[in-house]
Design brief:
This protein is an alpha/beta fold. It has helices at 4-31, 61-71, 83-90, 114-118, 132-137, 148-158, 166-171; strands at residues 52-54, 74-80, 103-109, 126-130, 141-142. It starts with a helix and ends with a helix.
Length: 172
């Protein structure tokens, strides 16, 4: 019959083996992206307070995509390289009224822009629009030219439910 010392060694050995097994599983699971969609992988982005900003909205591309789907809005990134280009793009501020708070326009310097660093932009100024269609295609729509008409048309094409801006979009 085994004495108390042998039972103690057995218990300690089992605890150590269990600890190694648990540690190995935890280590292995952290190396593999299971894509389980748990609470930790959920995006926690909120809409900005302002519809127009001189600078970056400080939202990642994924956060913008999430908000365009959840809130049915568009994000417009107007990227410039020179002060003349910036002055031209600042006129876009007037466009936010046409979309009744559903267009978020940022005028960003190319050197600090999230958009410019995420996509290869061939020339400046450039206007990229993130919306419902963007989240399906994974690339933002690019305005054909830097004019209010062209940018408004691009915004309208990327919206999911036009809702109360339908009349404006129909006139563009």
């Amino acid at each position: 019959m085994a004495d108390l010392k042998q039972y103690g060694v057995l218990v300690v050995g089992l605890l150590m083996a269990g600890g190694f097994a648990f540690g190995g599983m935890a280590s292995y699971s952290s190396m593999i992206d299971s894509g389980g969609g748990g609470e930790d992988s959920q995006i926690e982005a909120e809409l900005p307070e302002q519809n127009f900003i001189d600078g970056d909205y400080d939202l990642s591309i994924n956060e913008r995509m999430y908000l365009t789907l959840r809130e049915d809005v568009v994000f417009v990134s107007a990227v410039y390289n020179t002060s003349e280009q910036k002055k031209q793009l600042m006129d876009l501020k007037n466009m936010t009224e046409n979309f009744r708070g559903r267009a978020y326009i940022s005028v960003e310097n190319a050197s600090t822009s999230t958009t410019a660093s995420a996509y290869t932009i061939p020339e400046y100024p450039n206007v990229l629009v993130y919306g419902y269609m963007t989240s399906r295609q994974q690339t933002p729509a690019q305005a054909e030219e830097i004019s209010e008409q062209s940018i408004a048309s691009t915004i309208c094409r990327t919206m999911n439910n036009w809702g109360d801006v339908r009349a404006y979009c129909a006139s563009v």
